[in-house]
TrEMBL record, chains A, B, C, D:
This is Formyltetrahydrofolate deformylase. It catalyses: (6R)-10-formyltetrahydrofolate + H2O = (6S)-5,6,7,8-tetrahydrofolate + formate + H(+). It comes from Savagea faecisuis. The active site is at D237. Its EC number is 3.5.1.10. The gene is purU. Keywords: Coiled coil, Hydrolase, One-carbon metabolism, Purine biosynthesis.
Length: 293, 293, 293, 293
C-alpha cells in the first residue's frame, strides 16, 4: 500500500501561489502547465475579496519524468511569477517531509499518528520522537524510530530547547507535531519554525484557552466538547486554526469521561491537520488558514 | 394532531425532586406512586456525586382522572418530602405553560417557534410577542397572537422593562423566550424571572461571548460555528447552558454566510431547549443544567 | 436583502462544461475569459478518472455589462467548445429559474422552501404550487403564489399529469420540486423533465426504498435516521442523489417521533439540494451527481 | 488507571430485568435494594408500550463487600422475580467478561480494540485472537495474547468452526468480536453463541447488505457512508443493531478513500458497541436493541 502510493507520488508536483488578485492568473498558470505537458490533477483557488483581494491557488499536477524536468519547470515559471508578483512554491510528491513528534504523558495522539503513518496515510518520514517522559519509548523504538528523552520544566527551558533545536537540525526536520506536548515553547523557538509547528489543543478554541480545558468545560456545563489543531504562534492557543471537531456530552459525563471522549476527538483532528499540512493543502493567511480539501 | 396530544397529556403528571443523595429515595417515591395507582411512564435520575451528592429525580406518570386526584396526591407526598428534606414540584400535562416571545429584527428563531407550535410540538400557549421592531407583527397577528411593539434602547431601559413586566403579569407568563431579542435586561428584570428566561446566543459559548459573534468567528478563522441556548442570568452569556449545536464552515464562508448558517443552528437549538423546558426536563443546578432527555 | 442579492447577480455568469479529459482545457477556457475581461469568481473542476476520464468544469465569473455582452461571449466560446468537443452551457445570474412546488398532505418541506425563498436565499421565482390537497392553500396564496388543487390517485394519473404538464408549460417551469408529493409520476412525465425534478425521500437511501420508511426504520431498529434529496428517474428512489443528512435516534423514539425528527432533516436536506441546483452546482453524471460546493 | 477502575468495579453489581409491564415493579426492586443496603448508582428503564408492553430495567448498584453478599442477594431476589414473572440476571463488576477477537486481513478494528483495552476502557479479558491470516500475529503476541491462525474457506467451514468452538470452550469465552472477520458463520455456530457475537459491518445498514459495500456506495453516489455494529444472526447483516455512525463524503472520493474513511467509522462504532455490551447496557428484544446509555 505505502509503496504503491510512493510510486503514484513520484511524478506528482504541487504549485502553490499567493498574489494580488488580478485578471489572467489562472490563464497564465494553466497555459504554462499545458505547454510543459503537465496534467492538472486537482486545482483549488480562493480570493480573499472579489475586489483588491489576495488570490491563492493550489494546483496538483502530473508530469512524466518529473524529477528530471523540475529545474527547467521552475526556471520557466519564475518569469510568470515575476510578471504577477507571485509568492509561490513548488513541492514534489517524491520528497516526503521530515517530521518530529513531541509528546508528554498522554500517548493517544502519538499512537494515532503512528498508526496512520504505518498504513501509508501520512506521507512523511518520522525522523524522531522527543518527549519529557519515557512512557512512549517502547512503542516508538519498536517501529525503528529514534526516541529522545529530554526532561523539561520551565526553569531549564532554554537548555531543553537548545537540545531540541540541535535535533531538529540533525534530522533536518520540516514539520514539528506537538501530539499533546505539555510544555510552553519560547518565542525564539516558535519563530524558528514559523507555520511548521502543529499543535492539538484539547478544547474547541477559542473556548477554554489555556490549561485544564476539560475541567473548565465540565464546570461551565457545555453540551459539546471539542479539539482544535492549529499552528503554534507566540499567543497561546491563538494560532491559525487548521481543523476542529466536537462530540456531544451531557450532565452525566464526569471530567474523566470528558477527557476520554476528548482524546478520541484529539486523535482524529490532529491526524487530519497533519495530513493536510503534508499534502500542502493548508495556507496560512494572517491568523487564519485556507484549507484546500 | 395537537388535540390528540392534549388528550394524551390530560392524565399525565410529572414529579421533580431534588434532595441530598441518601438510601431509599427511589423506593419511597416509586412505592408512593404505586400505592396511588399511578403508572410510571418515564423515570430519570442523576446524582451529582456517588458520595454526599445531590440527587435529582424526574418521573412522568399516568393516573386516571388525575385532575380530581391531584390535591390528595400532593398532600400525601408532602410527608415523604419532609422525611427526605426534598425540594420538589408536581406539574401537570393539562396545564400548558404560558409563554411570551421577545424578538428584535431577525425573525428566524420566532418563525421556527411559531411553526413548531402550530404543529403541536411545543406544548405552550403563546400569550404575547414583544418586539422593539414592527417586522414580525403581521405573521404573529395572523396566528391570533397579540403583538406588542415596545421601542427600546439603553436610555429608556427602565420604562421599557416596566411595560414588559406589566405585560408579563397581565398575561400571567411562565416562560420568556428571547428569540434573538437584542436588548440587555436589567438585573431586576432577570431576577424576577429566574430560570424562566431562555435565550439563544449566536455562538458556541463560551467562545465569542458578547456582541457580533459571527464577525469574530470569521476573523478567528474557526472551522465550526455554533449556537447556544441558555437561561439568562446577570452575567452576560454565562447562564446555565441548555443546548448547543454546530455546523462545519470553512475559509470560503463570508460573514454573511456564517450568519445564514448560524441562523439554521439557532432555530433548531432554541426550539429544542424550549421544548425540553416545557416538558420540565431541564433542571438548573448551580450554573449547569441537568437535561433529562 | 433579496434586492441586494439580485443586484450582485446581475453581472454574474456561469459556464458549465463536460468533455473528455484532455490537456489544455483549463488553459483555453481561462484564457478565453481573461481576453473577454471576465473575472473568475469561483472555479471548480473534477475529472472522473486521471486517465481517459470525463472532465467537468464550473466557472462563475463577473463581467461588467454582462447582459449586452452575452451573445458575443457565447458566439466566441462556441469555437473552443468545438475544438474540445465540449458539452457546455452558460447560465446567468440575472435569469432566475422558474419553479413549481408539488406538495401533498405534509407541508413542512414546503414551509421551509417558502421561508428560505422569502429570505432571498433561494434564487428562484416560485410560479406555482400544485397539490392534491387543500391544506397549504392559505399560506401559499398569502405570498401571492398561485395554488392549484389537482386531486390525484393512480386511476386518474394520466389526466392529472396532463393538467400538470399544461401548468408547467403555462408557467414556463424550469424546476419541479417535490416537497413531499406522495404520488408516483409516469415515465412520460419524468422524461419530459429529466434532471429537473428534485424529490425529498424520507430515508437515508438506499436504505428503505419505497413506502413508509420511518415505520420500517423503527422496526429495523436503526440508530440513525436520514433523508435524501435526489433527481427523480423512473426507478423509484434510485435517481442521482444530491444531498443526504441524518440524526441520531434510539430505542425510546416512537414511529411518530421518528417522523417528527425526520421532518427536520427533510426540511434542510431539500432546501440545500434546491439551492445548489439553482446555483448550477449540481451536475448529473450517469446515476451520480457532482456537487461543486 | 486500569487498576483503579478494577477497584471501583469490585463492589459494583448490575441487575437486568425483563418482564410484562405492570404496576409496582420499580417500587419492589428499589425497595429490595434499599433493604439490602445497596446504593443505586444508575437506573434506566424502558417500556415497549404504555399498555401491555414489556418492561426493561437496568440498575447499577454499589454494595460494600458485595462478593460475600452475592449469594444471599440473589436468593432473596428470586422471590420478587417469581412474583412478577421476571426474566432477570445479576452481573458483577468483579467478573470481567472473557473475549475472543476474530479478524481477517484488515487489522484496523482490532488495533482500536487493543488500544482501548490497554487504556482500561474496555473491561474485558482478551483471551485469544483468531484469524485466517497471519497479519496481526506480532502485535497481538506482543501484548501477551495467544494468536491462533486457522486458515478458512467455505469448503472447510465445518472443520474450521469445530476448531474455533474448541478454543471458545478452552478459553471459556463470553463474547466473540468479529473485528472485520470476513468468513460466513454457520447457523450452528451462530446459535451456540446467540446474542454474544458482535460484528462490525462496513455500511450504514440496511443499506448495502452483503459484500463490497464501499464499492456499491461509490457507484450509488451516496453523500454519507457509515458503519454498523450488530449482533450476528443467521440472516446476513440483519441482526439487532447496537450502534451506527456516518461521515460525509462527496463525488471526489475514490473507492479507496471511502474505505479509508469507513475504517475510521468502523473503529469507533465497534469499540462503542463492545463497551456497551461489556457494561451490560445492550438488551436484545426481538430484532432490535435497547441500549441503556
Amino acid at each position: 500500500m505505502a509503496n504503491e502510493r510512493k510510486e503514484q507520488l513520484k511524478n506528482q508536483g504541487r504549485l502553490l501561489i499567493r498574489c494580488e488578485d488580478q485578471p489572467g492568473i489562472v490563464s497564465a498558470v494553466s497555459t504554462f502547465l499545458h505547454k510543459n505537458n503537465a496534467n492538472i490533477i486537482e486545482s483549488n483557488q480562493y480570493s480573499s475579496d472579489p475586489e483588491n483581494g489576495t488570490f491563492f491557488l493550489r494546483i496538483e499536477f502530473h508530469l512524466d519524468d518529473l524529477n528530471n524536468k523540475r529545474q527547467e519547470l521552475e526556471k520557466q515559471f519564475s518569469e510568470i511569477a515575476t510578471t504577477y508578483s507571485m509568492d509561490y512554491r513548488f513541492t514534489y510528491g517524491a520528497e516526503r517531509k521530515k517530521a518530529a513528534i513531541f509528546v508528554s504523558q498522554e500517548p493517544h495522539a502519538l499512537v494515532e499518528l503512528l498508526w496512520e503513518w504505518q498504513n501509508g496515510d501520512l506521507p512523511m518520514d518520522i525522523e524522531v520522537v522527543i518527549s519529557n517522559h519515557e512512557i512512549a519509548r517502547e512503542m516508538v523504538e519498536a517501529l525503528g524510530i529514534p526516541y529522545h528523552y529530554i526532561p523539561a520544566n520551565k526553569d531549564i527551558r532554554k537548555e531543553v530547547e537548545a537540545e531540541q533545536v540541535r535535533l531538529m537540525e540533525q534530522y533536518d526536520i520540516d514539520i514539528l507535531i506537538l501530539a499533546r506536548y505539555m510544555q510552553i515553547l519560547t518565542p525564539e523557538f516558535v519563530e524558528r519554525f514559523e507555520n511548521r509547528i502543529i499543535n492539538i489543543h484539547h478544547s474547541f478554541l477559542p473556548a477554554f484557552i489555556g490549561a485544564r480545558p476539560y475541567e473548565r468545560a465540565f464546570h461551565r456545563g457545555v453540551k459539546l466538547i471539542g479539539a482544535t489543531s492549529h499552528y503554534v504562534t507566540n499567543d497561546l492557543d491563538e494560532g491559525p486554526i487548521i481543523e476542529q471537531d466536537i462530540e456531544r456530552v451531557d450532565h452525566r459525563n464526569s471530567i474523566a469521561e470528558l477527557k476520554k471522549i476528548g482524546q478520541q476527538i484529539e486523535r482524529r483532528v490532529l491526524a487530519r491537520a497533519v495530513k493536510w499540512h503534508l499534502e500542502d493543502r493548508v495556507i496560512v493567511e494572517g491568523n487564519k488558514t485556507i484549507v484546500f480539501q
